[in-house]
Give the backbone structure.
Amino acid sequence: MGMSQRYLIYLGCAIPYRVSSYEVSARRVLNKLDVELIEMPEFNCCGLPLEPLSHELTLILSARNLALAEQTGLNILTLCPGCASTLKKASKELRESRALRDEVNRHLAEGGLEFKGNVEVKHISQALIEDIGLDKIKRSIVKPLRGLRVAEHSGCHLSRPRKYIGFEDPENPKALKMLISVTGAKIVEYMGETECCGSTIAAIDDKISLSLVREKLLHVKEAGADALITVCPACHIMYDANQLRAEKMFGEKYSIPVLHYTQLLGLAMGMRPDELGFDELRVKPIKLLEKT
Amino acid sequence: MSTYEGVKPSKIDPKFRYEVAKIPGGKNILQCFQCGTCTSDCPVSRFSEKYRPRYIIRMVQLGLKEKVLNSDFLWLCASCFTCTDRCPQGVEVASVIRALKNMAAMEGRVPEVFRVLLGNLVKTGYIYEIPESRIKRRETLGLPPLPKVNVESLKKSLQNTGIERFLKEACQKSGEAEVWV
């Protein structure tokens, strides 16, 4: 583990579109941990949301981002596990199949680019654990969150499908739990921790996706957690913004604040809520902030 | 719950399973022995009366190509990959379902939302049109400006991928000028 890390930051679509709170808090905590983030000169959608249309399209979109990153000689850090998993999967598929790689490179060549396959992609959780290290994070904590009890939701794409991602045990994810533990907050376990948030089918079947939201929030509430902690912009939208829609649809009240892990860590680093994008949260964590 | 409507033998395509097996991720489909792990562990199946990954795999094995490609339930897969990770026979269930969606899409059977996302992609490089207010707000929040995507280079790379048809329809629907080259 070196003194400081440098990455290209890949934002994807969901974060610039509506999850600034994640980006603001992530940049702040990474800066505190001496991580240098270099902006990509340009990037496009990773291709995940369009995979139902065409797998080839997704491969080209991912490969284009990887090719752009290769020109800088830096590895990619993403805040979205969906982007990380899509870029990782594409990279693996293209490195393993010469035919597929040649085909995708024929497309990229039309746009003046080439995929070579020498860029590594990590989601922020993976970078925090493998490159920055829990010890360093621990040393940055000035205000341990001892009074807090939180539940974690790692999300599907951080670890699934196992054979492509190679980080985390999808059946018993531990990374986020370890990351939460160093903040001093207590982790409460709940039923169905590895269940999906339903975001990918929100536009196809609102009722099913909100049923998944409801189920998760009921379990978290039952466990008595002060908040649900996420590391994915899509999961966050489902549990935070769409919590209000689920409450309306099912005529229930959940009142579970949903924080990005980087917001929780920022609080433990002594940063103020307004520096960490707390005002952008839809479910206001008023009681939680009183406890810290 | 499931009402079996019957299938005419002429609608059965015995080669379909081999077609699917050739697609990346489809390799092990013939090894599925219908244990049902995929369905019992599927988050969507718990809330849907129609979506059953096990049925989908069986339909492919039986050659019910038209029926499966025409189905609405195909689009309910949330791509959580739980089925893929837990299949005892190594069937990449989610990838098979993705491949089926791709086949249906290329035949023009695709939920509207994907045309919209694709339309945004070739216009902006992102699947959303990020509103001006958001881009301005980045400054207020102290975030660096969002890079502008080289849309021309992107569009050139996407030529001849078979997606042109969706774009044309997307543009006609939204009444916009054709964005495709």
